[in-house]
Design goal:
This protein has 198 residues and is of the alpha/beta class. The chain is 20% helix and 21% strand. A seven-stranded mixed β-sheet has the order 2-3-5-7-9-11-13, with no helix packed on it.
Length: 198
């Protein structure tokens, strides 16, 4: 009887992991449909494979949960999609040096385990979502060399004081306002890079 119960528990856990992987696979494959990929970098992103952990440019943890998406300099164009926020264990989103356009989805502010957000050198436009201020685990936010406009949200700037943010690069955009460095003690040092003429 104990053996049957153990098999049932192991089977249930396997089904849960399969469902998690299937959902992550659906999210990533859904994003792929919004991307133009002339070099077939995303060729391994096959919706018939249940586990996206076997796809190139995707890294998973020991529980088969997606923790990294690395698509830097992949010659991709298209947009980011709000559904990416459902990758709840994502720690690194690196899509720098592409031609990704459109706005940064505000839903990315739900990725509370995110450590690095690398969106630099793309064609992103519109404002920086204030929801990115929810990313208290974030250490590196690179949004430079896009077409972002408006002001840096106060909630994002507060990550400098109350979060773990070590680098905030917003240079080479169309942002308004000026940041001034202050010599305050008791806070970790954060490098803020902004255009001098902003």
């Amino acid at each position: 009887m104990k053996f049957v119960a153990m098999v049932f528990v192991v089977g249930a856990i396997a089904i849960i992991f399969a469902d998690c992987n299937s959902e992550a696979g659906d999210i990533l494959y859904g994003w792929k449909t919004y991307l133009i990929d002339p070099n077939n970098v995303l060729q391994s992103w096959d919706p018939t494979l249940d586990n996206p952990c076997t796809w190139f440019h995707v890294t998973c943890n020991g529980q088969n949960s997606v923790v990294r998406v690395d698509l830097g300099a992949a010659n991709l164009s298209g947009t980011l999609v709000p559904q990416m926020a459902m990758l709840s264990n994502l720690q690194y989103l690196q899509v720098q040096n592409n031609s990704i356009g459109g706005e940064i989805p505000s839903q990315l502010g739900n990725l509370t385990k995110l450590v690095s957000l690398g969106l630099e050198n793309n064609q992103l436009n519109g404002p920086i979502p204030s929801s990115l201020g929810n990313l208290k685990s974030l250490r590196w936010m690179r949004l430079n060399s896009n077409k972002l406009s408006g002001k840096i949200p106060i909630s994002v700037l507060k990550l400098i004081y109350w979060g773990n943010l070590q680098l905030l690069n917003v240079s080479d955009n169309q942002l308004a306002g000026t940041l001034r460095q202050a010599n305050q003690t008791g806070f970790a040092t954060t490098i803020v890079i902004q255009d001098m003429t902003a």
